[in-house]
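To the wet lab folks,

You asked to see what we're planning to order before we commit. Fair enough. Below is the target structure as tokens, and below that is the sequence we designed to fit it. If anything looks off to you, flag it before the synthesis order goes out.
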């Protein structure tokens, strides 16, 4: 296929022409259950009607002004997010990477301008993923995303996930913050252990470090709580959001506690497009629909059922290692590479993702029906059987 697009992505999985709810259709009219949700973006499935209506209304009124003007849906969305999360202030961006950039800048500026220290270093964790900008790929604990981009910005160090001793050893007088995912998504769908995360929180508090939780994939109900950190009873200083917030309209957000307000003072950070009328209208409508349909409340039960079914029915395969996750963010680990399973599953009418070489990742829409979930399980199991029989 001739294209003028840089070849930074693999060959397209398919050429979709329509999406509705949990389904996508290709050029030939074949339907697929979409267990990718645009990599955890389409919490309400494809083209949710109420969100579409609100976006169309806003398109007829005003699209963009920049943040030199008051943007009513931005203010409303900030209120919704702070009420759901327990934070106090929001900054809006265009992506998860930009949200994490904002968090990194906030941590450094707070330590240097407000606390009067020289702290700047961010500790992250191996197998993490925080974005593709130079700063966020440096924070990412995976060598493959850094290849060919040297020299990388200094001020970042990654330590093993779940290892308290390594974390303590990495902290020194110039450490500013700890950045982590409560469920590592790209790193294999690995949930944090409660005891470890509690100890990380205590260390951050004792050492005067900001605890930043990257909720780009876990936020907006994906794990069965509005935000992943809410499973653990911890109180981070900052969280970052993106994927599920806008139903596919690009938007990111950083939320922080009141004490950090001074660090992001006038002119210290900004974004031309961040939080404009269209993106925040989409975010506001997405949250309203999730609340009105009680979607998040149903995610835990659906996720538990999916985990139980897979764990029970995959035991028959010696190549199966583990199924893990929270809510509707599930990883299935095998003792071999899984990329060929994605192609077999597509032939059986279900779209899947990987999370590393040996893990299949399931991210169905949060409002997937019980019937569609059952169809997905059966199509997945059929595909696995065919894959392992080859």
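Sequence we intend to order:
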């Amino acid at each position: 296929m001739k294209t003028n697009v840089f070849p930074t992505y693999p060959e397209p999985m398919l050429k979709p022409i329509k999406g509705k709810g949990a389904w996508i259709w290709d050029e030939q009219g074949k339907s697929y259950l979409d267990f990718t949700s645009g990599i955890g973006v389409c919490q309400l499935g494809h083209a949710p009607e109420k969100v579409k209506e609100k976006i169309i209304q806003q398109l007829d009124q005003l699209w963009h002004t920049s943040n030199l003007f008051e943007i009513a849906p931005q203010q409303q969305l900030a209120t919704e997010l702070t009420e759901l999360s327990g934070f106090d202030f929001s900054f809006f961006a265009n992506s998860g990477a930009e949200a994490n950039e904002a968090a990194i800048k906030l941590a450094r500026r707070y330590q240097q301008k407000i606390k009067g220290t020289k702290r700047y270093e961010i500790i992250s964790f191996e197998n993490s993923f925080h974005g593709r900008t130079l700063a966020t790929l440096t924070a990412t604990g995976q060598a493959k995303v850094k290849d060919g981009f040297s020299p990388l910005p200094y001020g970042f160090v990654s330590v093993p996930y779940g290892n308290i001793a390594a974390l303590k050893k990495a902290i020194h007088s110039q450490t500013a913050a700890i950045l982590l995912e409560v469920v590592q998504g790209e790193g294999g769908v690995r949930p944090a252990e409660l005891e470890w995360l509690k100890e990380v929180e205590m260390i951050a508090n004792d050492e005067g470090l900001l605890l930043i939780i990257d909720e780009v994939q876990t936020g907006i109900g994906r794990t069965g709580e509005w935000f992943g950190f809410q499973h653990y009873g911890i109180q981070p200083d900052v969280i970052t959001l993106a994927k599920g917030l806008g139903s596919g309209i690009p938007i990111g957000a950083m939320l922080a506690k009141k004490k950090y307000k001074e660090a992001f003072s006038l002119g210290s950070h900004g974004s031309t497009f961040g939080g404009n009328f269209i993106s925040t209208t989409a975010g506001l409508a997405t949250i309203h629909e999730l609340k009105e349909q009680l979607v998040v409340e149903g995610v835990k039960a659906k996720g538990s059922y999916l985990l139980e079914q897979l764990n029970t029915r995959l035991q028959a395969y010696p190549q199966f290692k583990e199924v893990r996750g929270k809510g509707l963010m599930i990883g299935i680990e095998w003792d071999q590479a899984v990329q060929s399973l994605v192609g077999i599953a597509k032939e059986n009418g279900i779209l899947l993702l990987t999370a590393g070489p040996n893990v299949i990742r399931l991210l169905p829409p949060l409002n997937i029906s019980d019937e569609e979930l059952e169809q997905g399980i059966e199509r997945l199991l059929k595909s696995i059987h065919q894959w392992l029989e080859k």
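Structural context that might help your review: The chain is about 35% helix and 20% strand. The first strand starts at residue 16 and ends at 20.

Thanks,
Computational group
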